[in-house]
Design goal:
By secondary structure, the chain is α/β, with parallel strands linked by helices. The chain folds into 2 domains: 3-155, Rossmann fold, CATH 3.40.50; 173-312, Rossmann fold, CATH 3.40.50. The protein is built from 14 helices and 10 strands. It has helices at 11-24, 37-46, 53-65, 88-91, 93-100, 127-132, 135-138, 142-171, 184-187, 194-202, 215-221, 233-245, 261-273, 291-313; strands spanning 2-5, 28-31, 71-73, 76-79, 108-109, 112-114, 177-181, 206-209, 251-257, 279-284. Helix 1 crosses helix 8 and helix 2 packs across helix 3 (53-65). It starts with a strand and ends with a helix.
Length: 314
């Protein structure tokens, strides 16, 4: 069995966990490549025009993998209990894939995370139990799957902790610093977000990823900017990341893929609550060319210099 993993969506949150899990079981897997123009165009052609950029990118990766693997690995990540829920479109990816590519009859390997108690998917629940539910489909014993999961989980948590440690080091360093706020599947996508990172780095700015903060602490910290009704787990963590880093940076860049519903609410919260730092809003729709974005970034860098000078005078 060769398993296809789309390099999009929640891969940027769980990629290490998934890859190490399959490695520990000795199961072959194939990753789709970094996003490129062709992948985005294929996804855009499949999805409805009003679909969000992240969905179009994801389905472009699925399309790429269809004839390169025996089954697609698309977890059903829905409700994380007290920590919040996932975006509706992301929750729909398994069903959406089966429907959009029904003429190809794709085989889908999935596990379910849902603490709502309202779903009807078998074995939904905590993460380890969810992974164990795949044992039969993977032709492995529950013991093998449990050991592989625990090994992968340890490696995944260690890798994330190292990234958080590095982000904290950068935040405590010298020089001009910008907090980049956006979903990791946008920020770290080679076609969507990395050009923004490269542009910022080109001005000698240190970029700190708001995703890189202790997630449990972020779940408490976000309440300093929100009344607690915000439902989305990642959005809560991003606000928590802002609370964590905002006093150690010179400005904030908000990166949003058009038309992200959760981000439209989160960005409004930030606009109302953050008044002591310059904030740049960048809305990306996947169009070619960086000229306009680079001009806005250049202007924002100038704003930071004027802002810092004004603060120094006060």
């Amino acid at each position: 069995m060769k398993i296809g993993i789309p390099r999009a969506g929640m891969y940027y949150r769980y990629g290490v966990l998934w890859e190490e899990f399959f490695k520990a079981l000795g199961i072959e897997y194939v990753l789709s490549p970094e996003t490129n123009k062709s992948i985005l165009e294929h996804g855009s052609a499949i999805m409805a025009d009003e679909s969000c950029l992240a969905s179009k990118v994801y389905m472009g990766h699925v399309s790429y993998l269809l004839d390169k693997c025996d089954c697609l690995f698309i977890p059903w990540l829905s409700n994380f209990g007290e920590y919040g829920i996932n975006c509706t479109r992301f929750r729909a990816f398994p069903a959406m894939t089966a429907n959009l590519f029904r003429d190809r009859s794709p085989q889908i390997l999935t596990y379910a995370i849902d603490f709502s108690g309202t779903q009807d998917m078998k074995h939904a629940g905590d993460e380890e139990t969810a992974f164990l539910s795949m044992a039969e489909a993977l032709n492995k014993s529950k013991k093998q799957v449990r050991e592989a999961y625990r090994t992968a989980k340890e490696l995944s948590e260690r890798a994330f902790a190292d990234k958080v440690k590095e982000a904290e080091r950068l935040a405590d360093g010298n020089g001009k610093k910008i907090l980049l706020v956006g979903h990791d599947y946008c920020i770290h996508d080679d076609y969507i977000g990395k050009p923004i990172l490269r542009a910022l780095n080109g001005y000698g700015v240190t970029v700190i990823d708001a995703n890189l903060t202790d997630r449990k602490k972020a779940q408490n910290d976000f309440l300093k900017l929100s009344d607690g009704t915000l439902p989305w787990i990642v959005s809560r963590e991003l606000l928590g990341g802002i609370v964590r880093y905002k006093d150690r940076v010179d400005g904030i860049v908000l990166l949003t893929g058009f038309p992200c519903g959760p981000d439209s609410i989160v960005n409004d919260v930030i606009k109302r609550e953050i008044d002591d730092l310059p904030v740049l809003y960048l809305l990306l729709d996947g169009q070619d060319g960086m000229a306009g974005v680079e001009t806005r970034i250049e202007s924002f860098i100038d704003v930071l210099s004027f802002w810092n000078a004004e603060v120094a005078r006060q």
